[in-house]
């Protein structure tokens, strides 16, 4: 699955003057790698911590994700300093639907970073990219992500019980 064509980066800056969502840079990789080892990140995300091999190939994999139409991985940065404070990613199911996932680095949690980034990326995806629907999935125990989904206009559409008994809450937001 995925898109049938490459994804074009946003034509304008995705910013609300507090955060900016932008393409990943080599200078972001140290912060991304460090955050990938954070216990809270490991609790909620399925990605393994970034090791040295993954770090070396990271930007090439990111470029291929954009080129292949599979995903749009970006960095959330502080608008004032351009320092990375999190990551956000669209994973395309097809030309009309994508899932959105994000992680805020430990030092920036609780500051409203995630809802700001999700709003910016959602506006771009449902507008400029022309998607009809975004899906956001959160573990039922991840109250912070559930609040982000609700705050950003996603509606709960169902639940999925995972192997092992955990429940994933599924939210969707549509264009228009």
Give a written overview of the molecule:
There is one protein chain. This protein is of the alpha+beta class. It has one domain (about 15-175): Aminopeptidase, CATH 3.40.630.30. It is built from five helices and eight strands, in the order E-E-H-H-H-E-E-E-H-E-H-E-E. Helix 4 (about 115-125) links the parallel strand 5 (about 95-105) and strand 6 (about 135-140). The model has no long low-confidence stretch (mean pLDDT about 90). Pfam families: Acetyltransf_3 (PF13302). Keywords: Transferase. This is GNAT family N-acetyltransferase. One of its GO terms (molecular function) is acyltransferase activity, transferring groups other than amino-acyl groups.
What keywords describe this structure?
alpha+beta; eight-stranded mixed beta sheet; Aminopeptidase
Question: What average pLDDT do the residues reach?
Answer: 91
| Overall tally of domains | 1
- Tell me the CATH topology: Aminopeptidase
Q: What portion of residues belong to β-strands?
A: 25-35%
Tally of helical segments: 5
Based on the structure given, which CATH architecture is correct?
Answer: 3-Layer(aba) Sandwich
Order of helices and strands: EEHHHEEEHEHEE
Distance between the termini: 25 Å
Largest sheet: number of strands, sense, barrel closure: 8 strands, mixed
**SS class:** alpha+beta
Principal-axes geometry comes out as globular
Helix content: 25-40%
- Give the C-level CATH assignment: Alpha Beta
Q: What's the CATH H-level superfamily name? A: Gcn5-related N-acetyltransferase (GNAT)
Q: What is the strand arrangement across the widest sheet?
A: 1-2-3-4-5-6-8-7
Low-confidence stretches: none
Keywords: Transferase
GO molecular function, one term: acyltransferase activity, transferring groups other than amino-acyl groups
Protein name: GNAT family N-acetyltransferase
Domain N-acetyltransferase: 19-176
């Amino acid at each position: 699955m995925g898109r049938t064509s490459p994804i074009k980066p946003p034509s304008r800056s995705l910013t609300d003057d507090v955060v900016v969502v932008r393409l990943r840079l080599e200078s972001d990789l140290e912060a991304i790698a460090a955050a990938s080892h954070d216990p809270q990140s490991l609790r909620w995300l399925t990605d393994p911590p970034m090791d040295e091999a993954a770090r070396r190939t990271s930007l090439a994999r990111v470029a291929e994700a954009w080129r292949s139409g599979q995903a749009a991985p970006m960095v959330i940065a502080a608008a004032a300093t351009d320092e990375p404070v999190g990551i956000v990613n669209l994973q395309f199911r097809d030309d009309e639907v994508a899932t959105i996932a994000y992680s805020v680095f430990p030092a920036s949690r609780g500051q409203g970073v995630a809802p700001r980034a999700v709003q910016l990326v959602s506006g771009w995806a449902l507008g400029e990219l022309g998607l009809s629907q975004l899906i956001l999935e959160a573990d039922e125990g991840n109250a912070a992500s559930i609040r982000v989904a609700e705050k950003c206009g996603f509606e709960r559409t169902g639940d999925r019980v995972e192997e092992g008994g955990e429940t994933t809450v599924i939210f969707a937001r549509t264009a228009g």
